[in-house]
Amino acid sequence: MSQFTLLGFIALGGAFGACSRYLISELCVVLLGRGFPYGTLTVNVIGSLLMGILMSSLNQGLIEAGPWRPIIGLGFLGALTTFSTFSMDNVILMQHGEFIKAGLNILLNVALSITACFIGYQLMMKS
User: Fold this and answer.
1) Number of neighbouring beta carbons within 10 Å of residue 38
2) Is 81 annotated as a binding residue?
């Protein structure tokens, strides 16, 4: 596959990831409200779980590496998850004096995302 074609597939994966992030975030607002950045937390945890599954699957040889790592890992998951929005969410919370919510958001994003990635990786390990 040419680099140009691969870039096109990565961009397509990114488009699906960005649209997924938007839809998941909007669903979180509808279900949980705007009092906490649930959407960012949700996409980061889901993306981390999927990254663990992807990387374990690749490392175990369950799927052939080929273009899947950059298409899914860089494109889809790169656009689905978001560190910049996570950062801005915390700045906004702190600007509004919501320091406990900001701390909780930081703790939950880091702890749950790493845990989800670990779980995803372990799920795909060969027994």
Assistant:
1) 20
2) yes
Is there a binding annotation on residue 73? no
Specify the number of domains making up the chain: 1
Q: Are 56 and 124 in contact (CB under 8 A)?
A: yes
Note whether 48 and 122 are within 8 A (CB).
Answer: no
| Domain with 88 in it | 3-123
Whole-model pTM: value is: 0.88
CA distance 37 to 67: 33
Q: Is the pLDDT of residue 67 over 90?
A: no
What HEC string does 41-106 produce?
Answer: HHHHHHHHHHHHHHHHHHHHCCCCCCCHHHHHHHHHHHHHCCHHHHHHHHHHHHHCCCHHHHHHHH
| pLDDT at 98 exceeding the cut of 90 | yes
